[in-house]
Specification:
Strands 7-8-9-4-10-11 form a 6-stranded mixed beta sheet, sandwiched between helices. Strands 1, 2, 3, 5 and 6 form a 5-stranded antiparallel beta sheet that branches. The protein is globular. Helix 6 links the parallel strand 8 and strand 9. Helix 3 crosses helix 4. It has about 260 residues and is an alpha/beta fold. It folds into 2 domains: about 180 residues, P-loop containing nucleotide triphosphate hydrolases (Rossmann fold, 3-Layer(aba) Sandwich), CATH 3.40.50.300; about 70 residues, no CATH class. It is built from 9 helices and 11 strands.
């Protein structure tokens, strides 16, 4: 495995009773970059994510993380290695404050769950760290608000903060801007760019304006297989990608719709 790549898959395959959802996918995620996984509905993007975090077991193929074969490892072991999937671990606790939500995530790193039963004042040392994380996602001023009172876009920012609390080496973002209005999309896009410093991000994303503006590399899946991989400028001009992803003729640029 090249030292430049933090995550690689080799012929990663998942079959469900004869249906091939992921078909011999070779992913090469370069360290310190934002890598986007795109494709039409049913292309296998979420299944691919589920394989990487071992919510599903591959039928065949290999997953390599930092040079280690993690194909047979449990999801908990993979998370301990620093592969953290946002919006999976973080589902916000609505009636806890914004600060408390991040503090819960910080507690997960402590040696034992016994800490959950300790008096609240013993958790105060975590508050400074939690506030730093909230500052990173521009939620400092909302620290004492119940999470339920946050807007949809702000809840997503909180989910990113709780993911950062787990100290990810590789951060997996599953549809981070799904269901958002333009203002929130732009805010989350800037936030992803900001938190990507000194980190590697692999994201599944439908919004082409997000992908085109922040992704260093794009992998396009179609029917579970890799159709193309490369920078947006290159992939967006690929006639097969335009036809598969946009359902348009090859002379129309990707993102025209």
């Amino acid at each position: 495995m090249s030292e430049n790549f933090i995550l690689q898959t080799r012929a990663l395959t998942k079959e469900f009773k004869g249906f091939v959802a992921v078909n011999k996918v070779d992913l090469n995620v370069r360290r310190g970059t934002i890598h986007a996984l795109i494709g039409p509905n049913g292309a296998g993007k979420t299944t691919c994510f589920n394989l990487l975090t071992k919510f599903l077991t591959p039928t065949s193929g290999q997953i390599l993380f930092e040079g280690h074969d993690i194909t047979a490892e449990s999801s908990a072991r993979i998370a301990r290695r620093g592969v953290i999937r946002s919006f999976q671990i973080s589902s916000v606790f609505p009636h806890l404050s914004v600060l408390e939500n991040v503090r819960v995530a910080l507690q997960r790193k402590l040696p034992t769950s016994f800490y959950f039963w300790m008096p609240e004042k013993t958790l105060h040392p975590l508050n400074d760290q939690a506030m730093e994380l909230l500052a990173a996602v521009d939620l400092e001023s909302s620290a004492q608000l119940p999470a339920v009172e946050l807007s949809y876009g702000r809840k997503r920012a909180l989910e990113i903060a709780t993911t950062l609390a787990m100290e990810p080496t590789l951060m997996l973002l599953d549809e981070p801007t799904q269901g958002m209005g333009l203002e929130d999309v732009d805010r989350i896009k800037q936030l992803i760019k900001k938190v990507s410093v000194n980190r590697t991000i692999l994201m599944v994303e439908h919004n082409m304006s997000v992908v085109s503006s922040i992704a260093d590399t794009i992998t396009v899946l179609q029917r579970g297989a890799t159709l193309a991989e490369g920078p947006y400028e290159e992939v967006s001009k690929n006639p097969a990608v335009i036809e598969a992803y946009m359902g348009t003729t090859a002379n129309e640029p990707l993102g025209a719709h």
